[in-house]
Amino acid sequence: MHGTSITINGGDITSEASTAIYHAQDGEITINDGSTITGENAGIEIRSGKLTVNGGTIQAKAEEFSCDPNGNGTTTAGAAIAIAQHTTKKDIAVAINGGTFIGVKALNESNPQENDPTPQVELSVRNGDFQGEITTADVNNFVSGGTFSSEVEDGYCAPGFEPATTSDGRHTVAVADDMTVKIMDANGNDVAAYETLAEALKEVVSGQTIALLDNIQYNGKVSIPEGVTLDGNGKSITATSEITSGAFIEVRTNNVTIKDLVVNTDGKAKHGIQFYCTEGGELNSVTVNGGSYTSVIVNGSKDIRIENCTLNPDSGAYANIEYAMGSGVTTAPTVSVSNVNYNSGKPLVYVDNDTIKRMENVGTGDTLTDAQITDALKKVNDNVTISGMEMVWVDGSFVAKPIPTPVDPDDDH
């Protein structure tokens, strides 16, 4: 039966005669922590579909390894995890994020049917304890974490990783010395490492994190893909080329987080960071040094959070943060600002006259009426949350000012 979805959340599965779990269909199976799977021949043999292992113990009790073709059944003995494409030639995906794997071979991938073309197997090993060999016939560059009873071959190491040993003498892999960034999955497991941020930005996918391993310099704009976190890890990124429009770091996709990062525009950008027409963005523990206009601009973006940050715009800048609806932008931003250190000689948040007019559908050459100013100011105060501050009308624009302390009429002082 194809199209199955199986999740095992615990308990024991044992086969004293053959393989504990045989997965030949085009479906998905997930093994979570607390599961014990023991087979006389193999713990799990997957011949089609997707296998995800997040924990548990998987064991093959056979004392010798073998793998033989079989058009209607199991092929492998002596492997805790056996990957062997069926005669159906369907793709296989195996992701190992944790667990213990015991056998003559803790993990084996082979092509017993001699399928042509070569089996399409997507394999990742990001964590786990492998007590037995790992061998593959058709897959390379898949190990980015875990401990092993024998040295991991160079060809098995994920991009940017190399064989290493732990302090207690076990074998593992580690990020190579010349890598400056790495990618981690949603569970914090390493995925790959790269010499440049540009390479990582091409490979990262939604739900993953790019973490800096060193201070880096970057030529051009930094554009962050949707759903990705950029974790500076306390490091800095510095612009090395002129950014003629927009910001040094551009966020034009939804649900992007930037944290624990120092951003240096080095006098080369109008804005340090821009959220442009996005939803769900966050700056947390970010220091922005520079921005000839502002350190941060929120332009037509909703649900943006700026927390625990330090903003140091250039001396000629007009604000720390700009709330904007640029040319062609039709969405009024929503943003919350909390616990931000900033240049007190400039407005913390600023809204220019053109944005106010766009909020009120007034032509740029027309004059705002008092009623329109009042209406736009209410909208901005509804959309901008700043602890202890409110937006007010000052000389043709809105700026953030401390909320006045009410005066007690009965207080003689």
Fraction of helical residues: under 10%
Radius of gyration equals: 28 Å
| Main sheet characteristics | 12 strands, mixed
Low-confidence runs of at least 5 consecutive residues: none
In whole angstroms, the N-to-C terminal distance is: 83 Å
Q: What portion of the residues fall into strands of 2 or more residues?
A: 35-45%
Indicate the topology.
Layout: E1 5-8, E2 11-15, E3 21-23, E4 28-31, E5 35-39, E6 42-46, E7 49-53, E8 57-60, E9 66-67, E10 76-77, E11 79-84, E12 92-96, E13 100-110, E14 121-125, E15 129-136, E16 147-148, E17 161-165, E18 171-175, E19 181-184, E20 190-194, H1 197-203, E21 209-212, E22 216-218, E23 222-223, E24 229-231, E25 236-239, E26 247-251, E27 257-264, E28 271-276, E29 279-289, E30 294-299, E31 302-307, E32 310-312, E33 321-324, E34 335-338, E35 349-351, H2 353-359, H3 370-383, E36 384-386, E37 389-394, E38 397-402
Parallel strand pairs: 1-4, 2-5, 3-6, 4-7, 5-8, 6-11, 7-12, 8-13, 11-13, 12-14, 13-15, 15-16, 21-24, 22-25, 23-26, 24-27, 25-27, 26-28, 27-29, 28-30, 29-31, 29-32, 30-33, 31-34, 33-35, 34-36
Antiparallel strand pairs: 9-10, 17-18, 19-20, 19-21, 35-38, 37-38
